[in-house]
Design brief:
The protein has 364 residues and is mainly α. The protein has one domain. Helix content is 73%, strand content 0%. The chain has helices at residues 2-16, 56-72, 75-101, 106-125, 129-132, 138-161, 164-171, 174-184, 192-209, 218-240, 246-267, 274-300, 303-310, 312-325, 331-357. The relative contact order is 0.16.
């Protein structure tokens, strides 16, 4: 803190002295005896506006203070900043996906997005690529890539064809499907309260699907499929997380997606316009940045503390859908999403409490 005050004093001293230039000696013609110094109480160059321009010292001081605040912040606060930044970035990405959905085939958009994302990852990995390609579970890596592709196809198809608020609300049910997958695959024990929350959450999903005499909305069912495959991704990451690096998982995901999307993207290719190319590049970069930010958020903060922030995606999706696509969420969407969010929050908090009582660290 003393360094900050010293920087402020030096900055103010250099500004009042004309940015460090020497003051000319006073002369007898100026009304001062020869050899006497000018009074320090009289400003040499008064600022009529009373505003001193900010110099490099001011910027350095502010940067230093922000750095001190960031280093002194609690892990959950820093994780929250990462999480909110990720959600804002994802909101832009989702809006661009919906904007391009009527003009560019989804497989083409996903292909371009994955190519750009893979180039960014390769640039970060650099010469360490050979070591990053080593994996103990190639079959599980391929499985994760396949379910990631299925989750993207289902989830983004729903985003394009139904209101953003409805698709986002249904996606929150992923945590409920993780509960079922954890019992079947990971052999975890789930108490009666979490089973009750899961059942209540599925009632909320059914309300949002809004069944009628014509049947269920196909694209809403696609959103449910995206949540199911998203739960498979979570379980596979838990299995891989004990022995595989994050970069390795992302590299294999890119390989699987590029191979699987290559032929469909070529078969249904529509050459984008200049404006669409810009949207595709921004979508890809924002998606990569969002994935990095949300990974950092969960590395720094606790999942139980960050999870409630994730539900602000519904507010962002509702705002984006209303302002840019004239979408007004239905009453069933609001009621169903409230039930799903409540059940999901309870499940997350209950999971965190169970691990704390068992003396286990939160899952990576």
């Amino acid at each position: 803190m003393s360094d900050d005050r010293l920087s402020d004093q030096e900055a103010r001293g250099s500004e009042s002295a004309g940015i460090g230039e020497p003051t000319p000696p006073a002369s007898e013609e100026d009304g001062c005896p020869s050899g006497s110094a000018a009074s320090p109480d009289i400003p040499l160059s008064p600022d009529p506006a009373g505003i001193t321009p900010a110099g490099p010292g001011w910027l350095a001081t502010r940067r230093s203070r922000i750095g001190l605040w960031w280093r002194g912040a609690s892990p959950n606060l820093r994780g929250s900043v990462y999480m909110i930044s990720a959600l804002l970035v994802y909101a832009v990405m989702v809006g661009l996906f919906k904007h391009l959905g009527s003009a560019i085939p989804l497989v083409e958009t996903l292909m371009i997005r994955q190519l750009i994302m893979s180039l960014v990852i390769l640039a970060v990995v650099g010469r360490a690529l050979p070591s990053m390609l080593r994996t103990r579970h190639p079959g599980l890596q391929i499985f994760r890539g396949v379910v990631t592709l299925a989750s993207m196809l289902c989830g983004f198809s729903a985003l394009i064809h139904i209101p953003l608020a409805q698709a986002t609300s249904i996606s929150f049910s992923q945590v409920l499907f993780v509960t079922i997958a954890a019992v079947l695959v990971l052999k975890e024990k789930v108490d009666s309260r979490r089973w009750a929350a899961t059942v209540i959450g599925f009632i909320g999903i059914l309300i949002m699907l809004n069944p009628s005499t014509e049947g269920l909305n196909f694209w809403a069912l696609m959103a449910v499929g995206g949540a199911v495959f998203g739960a498979c991704i979570t379980v596979s990451v838990r299995l891989l997380g004990t022995s595989e690096r994050t970069e390795t998982i992302l590299i294999y995901q890119g390989l699987v997606l590029i191979v699987a999307l290559a032929w469909p993207a070529w078969a249904y290719w529509v050459w984008p316009s200049a404006e669409q190319w810009l949207a595709l590049v921004l979508l890809s970069l924002f998606g990569t940045a969002g994935q990095w930010l949300i990974t950092k958020a969960y590395q720094v903060g606790e999942a139980a503390a960050l999870a409630p922030l994730d539900f602000s995606r519904l507010l962002l999706a509702s705002f984006t859908g209303f302002v840019f696509f004239a979408e007004i969420p239905s009453l069933s969407t609001f009621i169903g999403s409230a039930i799903v969010i409540g059940a999901t929050l309870y499940t997350i908090r209950r999971n965190a409490r169970s691990r704390a009582e068992a003396g286990l660290a939160p899952p990576a």
